[in-house]
Design brief:
Elements: E1 2-7, H1 16-20, E2 31-36, H2 49-52, H3 56-64, E3 67-71, H4 87-96, H5 103-112, H6 120-132, E4 135-141, H7 151-163, E5 168-175, H8 185-199, E6 203-209, H9 210-213, H10 220-232, E7 236-238, E8 258-260, E9 276-279, H11 288-297, E10 304-309, E11 319-321, H12 330-336, E12 341-346, H13 350-356, E13 368-374, H14 389-400, E14 407-412, H15 414-419, H16 424-447, E15 451-456, E16 484-489, E17 503-504, H17 508-515
Parallel strand pairs: 2-14, 2-15, 3-17, 4-5, 4-9, 5-6, 7-8, 9-10, 10-11, 12-13, 12-14
Antiparallel strand pairs: 1-13, 3-16, 6-8, 15-16
Helix pairs in contact: 7-8, 10-11, 14-16
Length: about 525
């Protein structure tokens, strides 16, 4: 395992910033903010891997420490009503101290008000395609998990393309199996067929699982296979989109790159000069690697690129919908008072405790130190549900022992990352590994005079089976709309009471600031629970 220390938010930020703040400012009690990713609350059931796990330490904290159940989904965090929470919005709201209108909400507002049909960028591209005979390529996740995409946005884009008489629309469908139950890809591909029939335009020309198309680990070999299917028509040849689903041995997530071919064996939907590419995911982090790769490969070929929402790509890809401002939160308040923090997470959740917690701000912060825990091999979460939690724990404990660090922020990723596999027993084990890590961190915190604030960012592992009256339960690895625990483990001698009233993730940053002896930031609408 490798422990990578990154000062601030940029790897080349240098060491001078640490010398600038050798002496900590006078704050209240130092502490640790510990995000247990995917730690939701639900009553014990056959679907609840958390309840099935042996977690004596967490059970003790929940029984004996000031505890609340925090709303982490829907309008409480800036999502559409009833929408499950996710790690991105969860960490943004934890850091901002207020709900943030999420990209999916902003996109839906544009659609509901009709403004999407008059969007200047979109109208210009569709008008040009109608005049030149070029094709519109729609690339995105074909499901309604509402974490990265909503297939109904594809429906609207097809209708708009038909309205502008675009001659050809090519759909590059990405199957899910992660944000929604596995073995549902055929249903969603059927839904896409319905959308194309209703709009009178569009056809699926490639099919690939999100394991290939939405990789964000930096495995460019996976991305290249998808890009070759889209650009050059290279991949498993199929005559009909659903045939692709028979070629996977690892579920919907790992459908290999497949290319629909005609009677002559040639691919039907390669990107050609003069075409336009529109990425339909509303969340950036998992599709941006593919977007950058395609932009690079097609450079100089007169291809227009657009994204449904704003992406964090290196390539300049204009969005149809810009994102909300998530600034003015915890990071700015800590920086304003010169309060040093250390952020610790595994690769899978590193951006969440840095970039997203900081309000999607990638600027270097002199009073922050970032520790990324990385592994050398491709992870197998079912076989290794412990992931690298021991190394994360060691880094948190080491930071907590430092007198110049009033705040340590860490993410324990296991419950969520392993939960996404849909494997009940592996997720149970992940919870047990998490329990032991929390115990070690809390014991260290007590020895160093720190409080620990534990909170989930969204639900996941408390619901590992689907529910439906018309079908038998099936494994489920997606998120939930359940509340998440928020638990304060007080520092020695610290008096606290159980919070009263309703609680949301927006209350976490005000609580952290209050515990540190700092004022709540003016833009925060949450309240200090302790």
């Amino acid at each position: 395992m490798r422990r990578e220390v990154v000062p601030g938010l940029l790897e080349d930020a240098g060491q001078s910033s640490r010398r600038q703040y050798e002496h900590p400012v006078n704050t209240g009690t130092p502490g640790i903010l510990l995000v247990l990713d995917g730690w939701g609350h639900a009553e014990p059931s056959d679907a609840n891997a958390l309840a099935a796990a042996s977690t004596p330490y967490l059970d003790s904290l929940l029984a004996n420490c000031p505890t609340a159940l925090a709303d982490a989904s829907g309008t409480a965090v800036g999502l559409l009503p009833g929408t499950v929470g996710n790690s991105e919005i969860g960490h943004m709201v934890i850091g901002a101290g207020r709900p943030i209108a999420y990209d999916s909400v902003l996109v839906q507002e544009e659609i509901s008000t009709g403004r999407m049909r008059t969007n200047r960028e979109l109208v210009e591209v569709l008008t040009r395609l109608a005049a030149t005979g070029g094709a519109l390529h729609l690339i995105g996740l074909s499901s309604d998990g509402m974490i990265h995409a909503d297939v109904r946005h594809l429906q609207e884009l097809l209708c708009i393309a038909a309205q502008f008489s675009v001659p050809r629309v090519r759909i590059h469908a990405i199957t899910d199996g992660r944000d929604v139950a596995n073995d549902t890809a055929a249903t969603y591909l059927g839904l896409v067929d319905t959308f194309t029939e209703e709009a009178g335009i569009g056809e699926v020309v490639t099919v690939v699982g999100r394991g290939y198309a939405l990789d964000k680990s930096g495995d460019l070999e996976l991305t290249e296979k998808v890009a070759l299917a889209v650009v050059e028509g290279k991949g498993e040849a199929i005559s009909e989109p659903r045939e692709a689903l028979a070629l996977t041995q690892r579920g919907d997530e790992w459908v290999p790159p497949c290319v629909v071919t005609g009677a002559d064996g040639r691919a039907l939907g390669m990107v050609e000069d003069g075409d336009a590419v529109l990425f339909t995911n509303f969340r950036s982090d998992r599709i941006q690697q593919l977007a950058d790769d395609l932009h690079r490969r097609l450079a100089g070929r007169q291809i227009t690129f657009l994204s449904l929402a704003q992406y964090d790509t290196r390539a300049p890809i204009p969005p149809l919908v810009h994102r909300s401002d998530a600034g003015g939160g915890l990071a700015e308040q800590l920086a304003a008072h010169g309060v040093r923090s250390v952020r610790v997470a595994e690769t899978e959740k590193f951006e969440h405790v840095t970039y997203y917690l900081n309000g999607r701000n990638a600027s270097p912060v002199p009073v922050e130190e970032h520790v990324k825990i990385t592994g050398h091999a491709a992870p197998d979460y079912q076989a290794r549900p412990e992931m690298n939690i021991d190394q994360v724990t060691e880094a948190v404990v080491a930071a907590a022992r430092r007198d110049d660090v009033p705040l340590v922020v860490a993410n324990l990723a296991n419950i969520d990352v392993v939960g996404h596999t849909g494997h009940f027993d592996a997720t149970r084990q992940a919870a047990e590994h998490t329990d032991r890590a929390v115990e070690a961190i809390c014991r260290s915190a007590r020895a160093t005079g720190r409080w620990v604030l534990l909170v989930g960012d969204h639900g996941n592992a408390e619901k590992m089976l689907t529910e439906g009256a018309d079908e038998a339960p099936r494994p489920y690895g997606g998120h939930t709309s359940n509340p998440v625990p928020a638990v304060l483990v007080p520092a020695p001698g610290q008096d606290t009471l159980k919070p009263a009233g309703s609680v949301t993730l927006a209350d976490i940053a005000p609580s952290v600031l209050s515990l540190l002896g700092l004022a709540v930031a003016p833009r925060m609408t949450g309240r200090a629970l302790w």
